[in-house]
């Protein structure tokens, strides 16, 4: 066991990224993610990496896409307004199949909103913020240690599936400090390179039989290939052929499946006999844990499902909770009700689903949430 060190959530994110192999960070400072850029500027040069402070949010993610094409693991970080600006190039990365990571620290919105206050109002934007059909793997830490661990997973998933991945949490987790023991045995995954040597016959989007993820060459290695945000076939060149586009969409969306065992990373606490189950993420999961322990001490059978993989929705894990004991599913969110819609959809009428919403830019206080929960379960 390594010695515990005191870390801020944003600091842990950078350390996890470097552990995963990040060698370029490009960003533009924005509260409450700015410490990610700051720490990247300090730590990356020590491992031979590069830090770029770009002129704006769009240039930042463009640089990250370019670095990925050049064979480097790369990340950017932002918050609400910057996330909106990055949407087009997130979609480009999905279409061109570029492994990149975007750290997204939620604050109260919309627009400039409350820049220093916590919220969870960007959950649906994470999944549906861009146009067109494509998956959006989204991880959500609820502790400083998870900021480290899930950043590593974010890079691993980006490399495994050749897709942009979001690491998304709220301001509380990003700025809180905890003692964290960082282990050395985390798995680090690298993209699959082409088996063939560089040559004119290389097809950048040709997949091996049984796979949906094409090997990825890097510019500068001698391979000659074309990349575009337009629809394309195996050659990477644009095409208007309907059958080719349909095949591409099926592959891009099919490579990220909601029942993928790699995504089964969510946490269950005292759910086996629970009659009232919380579904929570980010800092709200921490408050919910306190409530569950209090309810249990009072003889009320409560449990907690902490969502760490927000998207794709953890259908298999969640539905495994829905036995005949469950009466209430309680979804506390720091928004006016976003993830609760997905929870209700996948509950399929097997239990009552209740939203407890807070959108004041403040944390859920334990007593406040307890009173709201008691009002739900006493009905």
Q: What's the helix-strand series? A: EHEHEHEHEEHEHEHEHEEHEEHEHEH
CATH topology of the largest domain: Rossmann fold
Q: Proportion of β residues?
A: 15-25%
Radius of gyration: 21 Å
Distance between the termini: 47 Å
Q: What helical percentage do the residues reach?
A: 25-40%
Classified in CATH, the superfamily of the largest domain is Thiamin diphosphate (ThDP)-binding fold, Pyr/PP domains
For this structure, what is the CATH class of the largest domain?
A: Alpha Beta
Largest sheet: 8 strands, mixed
With helices defined by DSSP (H or I, 4 residues minimum), what is the helix count?
Answer: 12
Instruction: Name the overall outline.
Output: globular
Q: Report mean pLDDT, rounded to a whole number.
A: 97
Description:
By secondary structure, the chain is of the alpha/beta class. The protein has two domains: about 5-180, Thiamin diphosphate (ThDP)-binding fold, Pyr/PP domains (Rossmann fold, 3-Layer(aba) Sandwich), CATH 3.40.50; about 265-375, Rossmann fold (3-Layer(aba) Sandwich), CATH 3.40.50.920. The protein contains twelve helices and 15 strands. It has helices spanning about 10-20, 35-45, 55-70, 80-95, 125-130, 145-160, 170-175, 240-255, 285-295, 315-320, 340-345, 365-375; strands at about 5-10, 20-25, 50-55, 75-80, 100-110, 115-120, 135-140, 165-170, 175-180, 265-270, 275-280, 300-305, 310, 330-335, 350-355. Strands 2, 3, 4, 5, 6, 7, 8 and 13 form an eight-stranded mixed β-sheet that branches. A five-stranded mixed β-sheet has the order 10-12-11-14-15, sandwiched between helices. β5 (about 100-110) and β6 form a beta hairpin. α1 packs parallel to α6 and α3 runs parallel beside α4 (about 80-95). It is globular and about 70 Å long.
